[in-house]
Amino acid sequence: MSTAIVYASKHGTTEKISQLLSTKTNDEDIVLFNLNEIQLPNILPFESVIIGGSIYAGKIQQSVLTFIDSFKNELLTKKVGLFVCCMLEDCAVDEFEKSFPNELKKHACAKGIFGGELVFEELNFIEQTMIHHIAKINYPVSNINHTEIDNFAKLFFN
Questions:
Q1: Within a 10 A sphere around the Cβ of 95, how many other Cβ atoms?
Q2: Alpha helices in 23-89 (DSSP H)
Q3: Which domains does the chain have, with CATH numbers?
Q4: What span, in angstroms and rounded, lies between the C-alpha atoms of 5 and 48?
Q5: pLDDT computed for residue 135 by the predictor
Q6: 142 neighbors 17 (Cβ within 8 angstroms)
Q7: Rounded Cα distance, 117 and 92, in Å
Q8: Per-residue pLDDT tens digits for 104-140
């Protein structure tokens, strides 16, 4: 099965998780597309598509929404998986629900909320200040949920 993993990553966590997902199958026909590098990758040759992004200020990246909007009809003919990376566990389900169109969520065979990371070296001064003010954190934090990633991969690749 040929699979495209299409994602947007602001500070690298979603990219790291997309790469990790690509290792969760014996299928060697997986291609990763970073929407920061290629706006609208051609997904027509792929049988399945995984779409992921990260949540910032309560929203998924606009490039993910643009991709979905551009390929909505094609996506509904393929096997689809959806995921978000979100540090705030208490609102992650709501953020996931707001990130993807209902029709696509209903069609998806796998959905995941994979946690996130705060890598302070990757944040600019304003982001560091906001994180410190809101979450009272000024050090690196990782709460990537590897169990959730494994469960998603089992659902999607089997």
A1: 19
A2: 62-70, 72-75
A3: 3-116+144-157 (3.40.50.360)
A4: 9
A5: 67
A6: no
A7: 14
A8: 999 999 999 999 886 666 767 776 677 667 767 776 6
